[in-house]
Amino acid sequence: MGRSYIVEETVGQYLSDLSAKLKPYVTGVLIGQCSSQRDYVIRAVRTPPKEEQNENNINPSKLASIDEEWVTAHASQVSRMLPGGLLVLGVFIIATPELAKDSQNALRKLIFSVEKSVMKRRLWKPGEDEVSDRAALQVCSTTKKIVCRTYDVQDPKSSAKPADWKYQSAVSACWLTLDCTVNVNIHIPLLATSPNHDLEKNTKNGLNRWSKQIEDSVFLINGQVKDNDTELLEGLKKLRGSTQSSTQFSDVKVLTQLSQGSSHRSTATVQVCSGSINLKGAVKCRAYIHNNKPKVKEAVQALKRDIINTLSDRCEILFEDLIINEGLNKKNFEREYRVLPQRLFVPVAGSSVMLSDYKFRDEAAGEIQERFVEMLDQAVQAEDIHIAEEAST
Asked: 302 φ, ψ to 5°?
């Protein structure tokens, strides 16, 4: 028996609309959440067309014209816009019957390259007991027939396994929200021996050390430390009655350990530095968890990853912006304050889940709206953009 995918009904409608409009094929990513029993798919997002791409560039007789790098770059951008608990769960292709034979090979290649690209940027590694199956969804544009298979992305030689694809309404309407604010104060020395273009590398190394602190932190959920294997909802049903749909754990506190304790020996290293980077401020973090008897460890892991991702993604966005707009030369960085982009959230229709993005202070709402249309194929009203943080350096 393969994995089961519980899929939001609106995903089926979206795929159907795409198959009616786009020929001879269209690719995209599936967004959702893994759990030990089943996976949940709450969004499907088509790969945006390249500006120079038109129907003449696509060879309708084969799928070899799929731009793997473009699909992968889009998946990486999408993964930045997902709060804790959500991930790119797989890839889909909608194709004409003539291309059906090649679809599975194309999907297999895309799944492995997407996973590699997304995980390359992450400062955490998947646990041994984590679900490593990713979905390969093939849709026939003529008959609308769906074939879902999975590949184990931890095994490069993995072969396709059949999977169940079941539509359901309001899949994520009652998911649980975990919110916390983390005060960040990270000091990253810049070695005198390291050339200036290693700023980004040094920052990543510093964030790597900090991420290990977050991994080792203690999480208080509603003021309590809970055992990893207990159910997250335990003790709350009596308090809230049947109103689970509005359950929110807004009071999550993160306690980082100040020292490693006496059992760990540490050695001091003296290094000559030419400067340092200081990251300071309060970051808003959020994770969403399915409501099918979730365990405390699932919730804590999702929130930990969001804390780590949101800071590393912002630094990455800042460096990209500096390279595009200013070039990364040394004088730009002498005693300068740079404001990392602020986090914002946008609701998903029919769901308790909100998607995330980042904005610089001089960015207008229109630019954010354009980005959501391009990256997530979602129209967003300006009044639905919720800025979660004050701007801070």
From this structure: -65, -40
Which residues is 21 bridged to in the sheet?
Answer: none
Check whether the bond before 24 is cis (ω within 30° of 0): yes
Tokens of 348: 């998903």
- Amino acid of residue 36: S
Q: What is the pLDDT of residues 234-286, one digit of tens each?
A: 755 544 444 444 445 557 888 887 655 545 666 777 878 878 888 999 999 99
* Domains defined along the chain, listed by start: 4-51+63-168 (3.40.140.10), 175-230+247-258+272-328+336-387 (no CATH)
Q: Which of 86-100, 118-132, 320-334, 352-366 has the lowest mean pLDDT?
A: 320-334
Which amino acid type is present at position 274? S
Mention every residue, 6+ apart, whose C-beta is less than 8 A from residue 32.
5, 39, 40, 41, 42, 43, 86, 87, 89
DSSP 47: P
Q: How far apart are CA 82 and CA 74, in angstroms?
A: 13
The predicted-structure confidence for 191-231, as pLDDT tens digits, reads as follows 777 665 577 888 888 999 999 999 999 999 888 888 999 98
Alpha helices by DSSP H, listed for the chain, are: 9-21, 68-80, 100-120, 199-215, 237-240, 296-325, 365-376
* Strand duo 133-140 + 146-152: pairing: antiparallel
pTM: 0.90
pLDDT of 301 > 50? The answer is: yes
